[in-house]
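Sample pair:
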Amino acid sequence: MLEEMRIRGLGVIDDAVLPLEPGLTVVTGETGAGKTMVVQGLGLLFGGRADAGRVRPDAPRAVVEGRLVLAPGSAALDRALDAGAELDDGTLLVSRSVSADGRSRAHLGGRSVPVGVLAELAEQVLAVHGQSDQQRLLKTARQRDALDRYAGPPVLGLRDRFRADWARWRDVRATLAQLRTEGAERLREAELLRLGVAEVEQVAPQPGEDVALSAEIERLANADDLRAAAAEAQVALTGDEDAPEGTDALQLLVAARRSVAAAAGHDPELSVLAGRLAELAHLATDVAGELASYLASVDADPVRLAVAQDRLAALTGLVRRSAASDVDGVLAWAARASDRLLELDGADDRIAALEEQDVRLESSLGALALELSAARTEAAQRFGSAVTVELAALAMPHAEVTARVSQRPADDGLRAGDRVLSAAADGVDEVELLLVPHPGAPPRALHKGASGGELSRVMLAVEVVFAGSDPVPVMVFDEVDAGVGGRAAVEVGRRLARLARSHQVIVVTHLPQVAAFADSHLLVVKAPDGVAAGAVTRSGVVALDEAGRVVELSRMLAGADTGLARGHAEELLAAAAQDRAAS
């Protein structure tokens, strides 16, 4: 609910604070006092069009501020928090200003926000019904949502099922379209993968084979150098038959060990060195034996060298074509390619399964859409009858409201029965509220079939019927009682009071019969200097107590506070209180 609103520099209102209570609040005042500025201030506060011409001539800007209480977890509160708003003691501060040069600014919860955010908030919070306002329920999508809420579980349950199946169907169709579009690309990809895998299978590389081949080729290509080096080393260790005795390393080590061993008994340290010389002699013998074995294994084999080089070239080609770093990378690529081929080859089976699912889902959706349409049509008949009854009590006895449920054919839509219909997540139906203002007149859309005053009464009747199912917590009616009086005026007040049981209702009225039903009464008054010659009119807002309400209703009844008018005002208040208590 809206706890408080402050208006500064807007039209005739200089600075006014409106304390707003739950239930029905009426705003009254003399003609020209600025009652309409209250409604315009609400519209401006919630994202309405900024009009610099509404700024007071003596003010630099018009400012409207509001204190809003939103239910935890509500869509409106979530939207405000998403916009960066912060709560102040559990309430949300909303502000809108318009400068004299037309510049507009909006703030929500202490943060500057685009004006569009306030308009989005208004969609969840506020419904304004006035002769010049764009009506929320005049939008066909809103009318369908409102009818669904009015119908309750019989329709809402079907709609929720349709939404869930609709989402599944759209996902299936999107996947099918993607698979079909990518069909040629899949064929090309599969062919390339098959060629690559076949080449790898033909070459049949082994893990690490390229590294081993490189080492083998290096050895075969340098076999003569390797043999020469090994032979020279072996001669150095074991000697040559043609060389003088004792010139090889092994003989020299043996001679050195003998020399040291002869004197080792005289010094333990020398004995240790003798042992180490013996170890060197044994090691030299082992190395000499290994060099002999190596010489026997090294063989210059040109045929084997050519074979190894050809094999390495084949492996190198595989590595290059698969963009791998080595043969192990080629093997990894081949494994991934085989998995991808299995996936690609299974696409046709997947398409066939999805096509079957598509047909099955469309069939069930079509049947569900027809069932939902029938339920909506039944609810629309009940709704139209209920609104027509309300209109009869609101001085429109010959008017009739109907809710038309229709479907549009489409070339590419949802097959429902023997027709293809335009569909969306909420079904195939379009709902439009139509008004027949008098017998013989054709049904027309609400905003085309009623005058401004009639439209407000029609919307009041609609809101009364929708009461309890409408999530918008705040409703504003501007001059909803235009053109009515007497008993009809009492009925207007009674219905506004009924609507105020489930909503916060703010009404600008000139009828005492309506004002008598208020839970709180605000009076827009002109300041004393507002009547001075050449002065700019100033108005303020006063919250009336019970005595003040009697005086104001007297003025509304007789134009003056007379004893007779007071008596009539007290009777109106008592009758309204009795009516509220009884209902």
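Confidence is low (pLDDT under 50) at residues 530-534.
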